[in-house]
Design brief:
By secondary structure, the protein is mostly helical. Helix content is 84%, strand content 0%.
Length: 112
């Protein structure tokens, strides 16, 4: 092989080496960019998710409070209606007499 051919081959090897180094550097830079983009996307996703969760939690607590207040008001209203209702003891006793008329009622522990 002539010296000129060896020089050309050496030059081509140097060019190939430089291209390989350039490719490796570009690959490393691309991986860094992708890693940073993924970290940023993950951060943004987590931030938005936490904000949505916080809003939902506030809404949930508000709805729970409203339900508790409504339930409490309904129970109070029911208790008020019950306590203000007219009790007809005479008719109640008559009803019981008609139901149990002629039937012997045994009460445990009672003495005859």
């Amino acid at each position: 092989m002539s010296s000129n051919e060896v020089d050309v081959i050496n030059h081509l090897l140097e060019v190939e080496k430089a291209a390989s180094e350039l490719t490796a550097s570009a690959q490393k830079d691309a991986e860094k960019i992708l890693s940073e983009a993924k970290a940023d996307a993950d951060y943004q996703f987590k931030s938005r998710l936490e904000k949505i969760n916080a809003n939902l939690e506030v809404d949930l607590q508000s709805r729970i409070k409203a339900c508790d207040e409504k339930t409490s008001a309904e129970i109070s209203s029911y208790k008020e209606r019950i306590s203000s209702s007219v009790k007809n003891q005479k008719d109640f006793n008559s009803l019981l007499d008609s139901i149990f008329a002629g039937k012997e009622i045994k009460v445990s522990g009672a003495r005859a």
